[in-house]
Write a structure and sequence with these properties.
heterodimer, A: alpha+beta, Butyryl-Coa Dehydrogenase, subunit A, domain 1, Butyryl-CoA Dehydrogenase, subunit A, domain 2, 3 domains, 4-stranded antiparallel sheet, B: 377 residues, Butyryl-CoA Dehydrogenase, subunit A, domain 3, 4-stranded mixed sheet, binds flavin-adenine dinucleotide
């Protein structure tokens, strides 16, 4: 037996013994997702046990080095782990911005001490991170950000405002883009700093969205303090780190994973005529969508196979982000059509308080968050195709 | 299996691209068209393709082939698509050979050997109307003591007038629309009563209509079991569809490449037109579609090589490649402006080839409908 096959057996046995039964069912919604952090309330003992067992193995972040709380797995081994988890429908033990975004950036740009301090708590789900990039006047034009950080020797004093900060009210720490030099050129005066949000100088205010949820906030800094040891990279060189992190964020947002096929939803809901969905036009739209969705899923697979473990996909991530998010929006428009008037119920048990409608509205943000579709198209055209600025 | 080309396949890709760029640039097709070439392809090119091992790319060594499988055939087809190289490769080395490979008898193997080495050319005749609908085949067969007599007609047959042998899908039982009762015959092109009419088509390539008037063949000419032809043909056809999708990708990719070059050099309003965001966003979307299409095709070709059922993959890839080819060739002309409409400029050859290939063995609508059926809705 090859080493990988031996590993597969080990993983399979371990998962069988350690993954609680209730963690082998699909998540019903965002509320069953484990985000970790100081303020997180576990939905069940099983959820906590599952996180702890996986974290002990380093398998919440399988490819990170062991010394930083990871599993030290090769890319091939991580693929085996993922496929074995999928085999038993195991839930992801932990999701977080720390895993998807900050971790990869720290691994690339952090010092050994910074990695030792921040990565293991991410891997164990102890600290939840939020992303302080966007500001009221710095959205697509992110580099025009104006949150000010003053150098006070061993620390920075930070003043300004962030907006659209997802889960800021539920997070513990923030990775934040600040301006340390107002005289330098736009992209040169930016620094990447980390600080604890549990301090007097930081306040958050949730924003109500069209879906009726408030997953993100306005975040205000009034003399907030960031320790200098938590400046990542050099002062004024934060833009490079910010962009690197965005490539990970975009790949993650674009990765729609393998959701329940649209056609299964349609088969559950619609009538059949001669074995075919009875609305021929909608059936055609669903098929066209699923052809794109399958082709895109294979593109994610190809991108992963082409990239080295954990390597940044660079501008290719913009393509994945653009395509994946536009597809997901299309999917949810079709889900509305499949469900007809039932899709529009907003409150009530029948619809689980308007889950379909709220999820549909949520997807509208997919092509905005992490850089809009238009911005991704700009990046593709400049960085990949090489069209002039 | 990783969804990337391995080292050997990468080498094949480089050599195929170099080969067609040098030996069969687009001007060759233009010349064949302008000269109203009798053959419709360059015999020298075909000879060299055989020597390179392209003719036998899907055949194993025992058949004189190079054994690169369907991923290999896709690589060659894509390279041909980029220069629109004209040759009987698709008809003979891919379609006919795939079909023959499905039969495990000496007769089929002997012919397969000739196709794989380029010694003979064969093609497949399925369609009878302007739309691809194999199950609706009606070409009549009557049985005699020594064999069979065929009557009917076929259309949209690639390379028939240069072929030595024609594989014919015919009805030996049942009604039009019934997938059972179809049988495959192999007929020599010289056969009495078989009339091959070359049809000049938009893409300047070889196509023909064939009329069968009491064409007698011996019982040896029936391939496989009578009435079971579709069961054997369909999987072979699916593999061919995947390779056709790869050729379409080559056509699309080249239309894109040429257009991006144009966007970087053409000036209007004192600026390079490629700096206009209206064009940039369309270009970036186009790029994305090409990448996504490439993945679907490679996945399908790998599935074909690993012996999986490829029906779902083939419909996925052919549908996606057809849609992307339509986008690609339309955008190519539009972004070139007036010059894109001139015959002197090559882009017209690409849109013409694309549409014909899109239609071959099922277009986007055919395959998205089939994809839905195969996915259970
Ligand atoms: C659900 C959600 C979660 C988010 N989470 C976070 C978070 O956690 N942390 C964080 O920092 N930010 C977050 N964001 C913010 C997000 O990154 C910004 O909304 C996004 O970058 C767009 O900025 P903007 O909203 O200011 O829009 P604008 O930049 O004002 O854009 C308005 C419109 O103009 C278009 N446009 C702008 N510039 C160009 C151009 N050059 N070419 C063509 N079109 C252009 C845009 O595409 C868009 O259509 C989140 C956003 C959403 C919706």
């Amino acid at each position: 037996m090859s080493e990988l096959e031996t590993f597969r057996l080990e993983v399979r046995n371990w998962l069988e013994a350690n993954c609680p039964d209730s963690m082998r069912t699909p998540t019903k919604g965002l509320e069953d997702v484990c985000w970790g952090g100081r303020k997180f309330v576990f939905e069940s003992d099983d959820q906590r046990i599952w996180l702890n067992r996986m974290a002990d193995k380093g398998w919440t972040v399988p490819t990170w080095p062991k010394e930083y709380g990871g599993g030290g797995l090769s890319k091939a081994e991580a693929k085996v782990l993922a496929s074995e988890m999928k085999r038993i429908n195991a839930r992801s033990p932990l999701n977080s911005f720390g895993i998807w975004m900050l971790g990869p950036a720290l691994l690339e740009f952090g010092t050994h001490e910074q990695k030792l301090e921040h990565l293991p708590p991410i891997a164990r789900g102890e600290i939840r991170w939020s992303q302080g990039y966007s500001e009221p006047n710095a959205g697509s034009d992110l580099a025009s950000l104006a949150t000010k950080a003053e150098d006070k020797g061993d620390h920075f004093i930070i003043n300004g405002q962030k907006v659209w900060t997802s889960y800021a009210d539920k997070s513990d720490w923030i990775f934040c883009l600040v301006r340390t030099d107002f005289d330098a050129k736009k992209h040169d005066g930016i620094s990447f700093v980390l600080f604890d949000m549990d301090q007097k100088g930081v306040t958050t205010k949730p924003i109500l969205l069209i879906s009726g949820n408030s997953p993100f906030c306005e975040t205000f800094f009034d003399d907030a303090i960031a320790d200098k040891k938590n400046l990542i990279g050099e002062a004024g060189k934060g833009w490079t780190i910010a962009k690197y992190l965005l490539t990970h964020e975009r790949t993650m947002i674009g990765d729609i994973g393998m959701p329940v096929p649209l056609s299964s939803l349609a088969l559950d809901k619609m009538e059949l005529e001669n074995g075919q969905l009875d609305d021929a036009m909608l059936r055609g739209d669903i098929a066209a969508h699923e052809i794109d969705a399958a082709s895109f899923m294979f593109t994610m697979e190809r991108a992963k196979d082409e990239a080295k473990a954990g390597a940044s996909l660079g501008a290719f991530s913009s393509m994945l982000k653009y395509y994946g998010t536009e597809l997901n929006k299309d999917r949810h428009e079709l889900i509305l059509k499949v469900n007809g008037s039932d899709a529009y119920e907003w409150e009530g048990q029948f619809s689980n308080d308007g889950e379909i409608a709220r999820n549909w509205l949520r997807t509208k943000a997919n092509s905005i968050e992490g850089g809009t579709s238009e911005v991704q198209l700009n990046i593709i055209s400049k960085r990949i195709i090489g069209l002039p600025g | 299996m990783a969804l990337v080309l391995n080292e050997e396949q990468q080498l094949l890709k480089e050599s195929a691209e170099g080969f067609f760029a040098e030996k069969a640039p687009v001007v060759q097709l233009r010349q064949l068209r302008d000269d109203k070439s009798e053959k419709g392809y360059s015999a020298d090119l075909w000879q060299e393709m055989a020597e390179m091992g392209f003719a036998g790319v899907i055949a194993g060594e025992e058949l004189g082939g190079t054994g690169f499988g369907y991923v290999g055939a896709g690589i060659v087809a894509e390279a041909m698509g980029t220069t629109l190289a004209a040759s009987p490769f698709m008809a003979s080395s891919v379609i006919a050979l795939s079909v023959l490979n499905a039969f495990d008898d000496d007769h089929s193997r002997a012919i397969a050997h000739k196709l794989a080495t380029g010694a003979e050319i064969a093609t497949l005749a399925i369609d009878e109307t302007s739309r691809h609908a194999p199950e609706k085949t009606t070409l009549k067969v009557s049985e005699t003591e020594t064999g069979y007599v065929l009557n009917g007609m076929k259309t949209f047959v690639p390379d028939a007038h240069v072929a030595d042998k024609i594989l014919v899908l015919a009805r030996t039982a049942g009604e039009a629309g019934d997938p059972d009762g179809l049988s495959l015959f192999i007929v020599d092109t010289g056969a009495k009563g078989m009339i091959v009419d070359r049809t000049v088509m938009t893409d300047s390539r070889n196509w023909a209509k064939i009329t069968f008037e009491n064409v007698s063949v011996s019982s040896d000419n029936l391939l496989g079991d009578k009435g079971n032809g579709w069961k054997t043909l369909e999987p072979a056809l699916d593999k061919a569809r995947l390779v056709i999708a790869a050729e379409l990708l080559g056509v699309s990719q080249e239309a894109y490449r040429v257009t991006m070059e144009y966007l970087k050099e053409r000036k209007q309003f004192d600026t390079i037109i490629g700096s206009f965001q209206a064009l940039q966003h369309r270009a970036a979307h186009w790029y994305s579609e090409l990448e996504v299409t490439r993945s679907a095709i490679l996945k399908g070709l790998q599935a074909a090589d690993s012996g999986q059922n490829t029906a779902w993959f083939a419909s996925l890839a052919k549908a996606k490649a057809s849609k992307t080819a339509e986008l690609s060739t339309n955008e190519a002309i539009q972004m070139h402006g007036g010059i894109g409409m001139t015959d002197e400029y090559d882009i017209g050859f690409y849109i013409k080839r694309a549409r014909v290939l899109q239609h071959l063995y099922g277009d986007f609508n055919y395959h998205s409908d089939r994809f839905a059926k195969l996915s259970g809705y």
